[in-house]
Each structure stands twice: as C-alpha cells, then as structure tokens.
UniProtKB/TrEMBL annotation:
This is Nuclear transport factor 2 family protein. It comes from Algoriphagus aquimarinus. Residues 32-140 form the DUF4440 domain. Keywords: Signal. It comes from the Bacteria. The keyword Signal applies. The keyword Transit peptide does not apply. Residues 1-24 form the signal peptide. SUPFAM superfamilies: NTF2-like. Pfam families: DUF4440.
Amino acid sequence: MKKTIQIGLYMMIASLILTIPSMAQDLEKELAAITAKYEKAYNAKDVKTLVSMYTADAVRTFSDGRHFSGTGEIGAAMTEEFAGTSLKVSIHPGGYDVNPDGTLVSKGTYHLEGTAGTEAVNTNGSYTNTLAKVNGEWKITKSSLVLEQ
C-alpha cells in the first residue's frame, strides 16, 4: 500500500513537471498576443480597445507623477495624449513573473517615435504591468511607465 502511494505521488509530480514548460509556453504566447494587440491599438489611437485591456479599477502611473485610476480616467488621458500627435510605439517584452495569487507582473521596454504637436519625439522607456485573469481574459490592473531621461 505504501509503495502504491509513493508511486502515485511520483507519477503526479512527474506529470506536473512535464506540464510546466507547456503552461509557460502558452502564457508567453498569451502575453505576446496582448502586447501585439496593445501596440496595434496604440498606433491606431484606438482608445476603446486600449481601455478594454484594463480592469475597471486599474491604475496607470507615469514617472513624471501623472496618475490615472479607473478606465474612465485612463481613457480620457489616452484621448488627450493622442490629440495632436502622430506617435508610434514599439513594445519589447522583457519577461514576467507569476505571483502566488495568480496575477502576473510583466516587464519590458518601449520606443516612442513621431511628433507631439510640432515637436519631434524619439524616446525610450520601460514598463511594469500587473495583469489578472478576468472572465478568462488577461487584463491590466496596474501599469507603471518610466521614461528614460
């Protein structure tokens, strides 16, 4: 009996170990799809799609002190940000960590280029996003953007 339990336990552990790489690959694909969707929507100035990627109580902060809470404020800030600009973003994911509560922390860099009003923009920055699964879909709960000086 004891040997049967040990064998069963070893089999369970082995199956978990074998599925972890597959789960990580799936997660990487999901994050790549989220990144591509965000980049495409940003470059199209599609505020509706961008806002749909955040939870209702999400927080978006910038290194210059700007802070927006909730999809209403985030959407209004994006609308204002896009007014009079022709900016294009290129996002480069750097990796992620899975938290014990099932949320993810995704980090990476971005490059922003174009014009804001009459001023040329060509800058880099980094981001840290926390994401949670809501109704089977990853949503951003917290986004911190740091502009390189």
